[in-house]
UniProtKB/TrEMBL annotation:
It comes from the Bacteria. This is SAM-dependent methyltransferase. InterPro entries: Methyltransf_25 (IPR041698), Methyltransf_Superfamily (IPR050508), SAM-dependent_MTases_sf (IPR029063). One of its GO terms (molecular function) is methyltransferase activity. Pfam families: Methyltransf_25. Keywords: Methyltransferase, Transferase. SUPFAM superfamilies: S-adenosyl-L-methionine-dependent methyltransferases, Trm112p-like. It comes from Armatimonas rosea.
């Protein structure tokens, strides 16, 4: 089995958790199907495994409306995101800290939750055996995918999906990381859902499973010049957390082993899963 076939075998239906089949993991176009008749299109080699609520129809609650707003904004902002000079410089500082919090080995299967335009994806892909990259912005996924050289692209599968309804099997990833994403998930319930799913997909701590996550930090000097909760241009929701808040929220879904505020703007928090869920 190739690594892409292995990654493909880890995908499930976001609505029912049923197995998916019908696409080879390589062809640009295709369809993933469940035995009970659900189907999910694949375009440009990227399956659309969004839950029904984000695929169309009325946006009848805050979570769906905010998520659709961010999906549109992220799709529209891929170029400007990649041109942010401050973010490029920050990456040089952030990546070594992230790799310390989430050490990667060549035997690992990894999940990157909210890969965006792939700012950190290549770093991860170079170090692990296989990588599943999830984001709900199709344009971001297309850009991230196009950035990978062929040799790395073979061991990475990109899927369009919602982290609060993560369509991946339980306890299969050695490493789960999500960076700069959690603060954009618009309600406490949706954030708890995303953490629950990220932890669910991770192997148990005694099997070596580890998670790391970064999210906006609330506290001086940020709190002197910004709001704790609001919207970025284009309609992207955000909320900033104190370390105690983030530790408590992550602590409900995995055992926190460390956290740093060295990134000032972001918390970086890491740990392992110690109970099935
Ligand atoms: C600030 S960007 C960070 C991207 C990348 N991790 C990085 O550090 O450059 C946030 C990303 O999270 C994605 N995102 C936000 N909420 C999501 C959700 N519920 N499910 C999947 N992706 C989500 C957005 O589409 C966007 O690409």
């Amino acid at each position: 089995m190739t690594i892409r076939e292995e990654l493909l075998s880890l995908l499930i239906c976001p609505e029912t958790g049923a197995a998916l089949s019908g696409w080879d993991g390589v062809s640009a176009q295709g369809t993933l199907k469940t035995d009970d008749g659900r189907s999910y299109p694949v375009t440009d080699g990227i399956p659309n495994l969004l839950p029904d609520a984000l695929r169309g129809g009325p946006a009848d609650d805050t979570e769906v409306a905010e998520k659709r707003s961010e999906m549109e904004a992220r799709d529209a902002q891929v170029k400007s995101y990649d041109q942010m000079l401050g973010l490029k410089l920050f990456t040089y500082y952030e990546v070594p800290l992230t790799l310390k919090a989430l050490p990667l080995e060549s035997s690992h299967l990894m999940l990157e939750g909210g890969c965006g335009t792939g700012r950190m994806t290549r770093t991860f892909a170079e170090r692990v055996r296989g990588l599943l990259c999830v984001d709900f912005s199709r344009e971001s996924l297309r850009v991230a995918k196009a950035k990978l050289p062929t040799a790395l692209a073979e061991k990475v599968l990109f899927i369009q999906a919602d982290l609060s309804r993560l369509p991946a099997r339980s306890e299969v990833f050695d490493r789960v990381g999500s960076f700069g994403v959690y603060e954009h998930i618009p309600t406490p319930e949706a954030r708890a859902g995303a953490l629950k799913h990220l932890a669910r997909a991770c192997k148990m701590g005694e099997q070596g499973g580890r998670l790391a996550l970064s999210a906006y930090r609330w506290g001086p000097p940020i709190s002197w010049m910004s709001q704790q909760e609001g919207h970025h241009p284009g309609g992207i929701y955000f909320i900033r957390f104190t370390q105690a808040e983030l530790k408590a929220q992550c602590g409900s879904h995995f055992t926190v082993q460390g956290a740093t505020e060295a990134l000032l703007y972001y918390h970086l928090i890491w740990g392992q899963k110690q109970h099935h869920g």
